[in-house]
Amino acid sequence: MCEIIRRGILSAGLGFAVLLLTLLLPVQGAAQSFDRKNPGDSYGVFIGAGPEKLSAMMKYETVVLDAQFFSPEDMKQLHQAGCRVFSYINVGSIENFRPYYQKYRDITIGAYENWDEEKWVDVSHKRWQKFILQELAPAIRSKDVDGLFVDNTDVYYFRHNRKIYDGLVKILRGLKRQNIEVCINGGDSFVSAYLKRGGSFHEIADAVNQESVFGKIRWDEPEGPDRFGKNTPEERKYFQDYIERVAKDGGEIYLIEYTEDPALIRKIRGYCRKHGFVCYITADLELK
């Protein structure tokens, strides 16, 4: 369902469970009509949650959810609370619980490690491009969301070829033309290639959300404190170089970190404060 954490593993960080207490940094320019005195109330990620979590969402300035499970009235309530709402949209893979799974199953190209219900999609296929740009994105936009949280451009890491690259370029440029904010979740391989080839970041997106810059998920460990570790200095530098490059090109930067380590949390918050980034910190891999 989400971003690949690479350098030794292929993993994802978004799905379904219980939202835990978060530590965040302020979002500049976000709505202020709701009473938000806690510096951790800038950015809330609820991709696995449904409308039953509306009250919890309302304290955040920027909220990420999956609009396919919410009504326009739900969005109205969030906007009245002063929230800026981004909806999850999966452009590079497809989950078997989506109503359109069977229709596009024939153009999947491989299993998604650690997420058995999900498969990578051939984004170069015109059927898929048409579906994303002419059906799925407009349906999500009709819910009156403010932006799209675009996941799994990492299909370019899974299948590293020009066809996949060109397919992603077409999809992302098409989304940008729909007059809506676009935040790419992860996407380091694709975005870095796009910038290296002389492209401007704002041609394809407005922001990047990067998972696990500092922390590491040990997928072989059972659920619990031992499942969370730290990236090596080399791994951390790789992702820092990526997000700082995007920021230099004018992109907004968001982080999601999975950890319960107080010292690491302080380090993450200090880094984000220094660079003007926003971070969501949780011990729940499924973000409900």
TrEMBL record:
Coiled-coil annotation reads none
UniProt protein name: Glycoside-hydrolase family GH114 TIM-barrel domain-containing protein
Residues making up the signal peptide according to the UniProt record: none
Annotated Pfam families: Glyco_hydro_114
Glycoside-hydrolase family GH114 TIM-barrel domain: which residues?
Answer: 63-287
Q: Which taxonomic lineage does the organism of this UniProt entry have?
A: Bacteria, Bacillati, Bacillota, Clostridia, Eubacteriales
